[in-house]
Amino acid sequence: MSTNPSKAPKLPFDCIVGTEPEVVFNRYTGESVTLSPEAVAVYDTIIGCETFGDYTTMRKGLDWFRRYFPKEYMVLLD
To answer: What is the pTM of this model?
Structure first.
C-alpha cells in the first residue's frame, strides 16, 4: 500500500524521514521500487540494523514493512 504522507502509517521506531519519494534497489537482484519518505526511512533503518546486529529493531521494521508495503517488501526484503 503506497501511502499519502498525510495518511502515512505510524512508524515502528524513531527515524529520520525525508521529504521526497525515492527509488530503492534490491541489493541482490537490482529490482527497484519507489518508496514514500516514511518507507525509505524504515528501509534504511532495517538495513542499518542488519549491519550492526540489532535484530530486535530490524524485526519491528520488517513486520511494519510487510504490513504496510507488502509489494515493496517482496521486491526489497523478501
So the answer is: 0.88
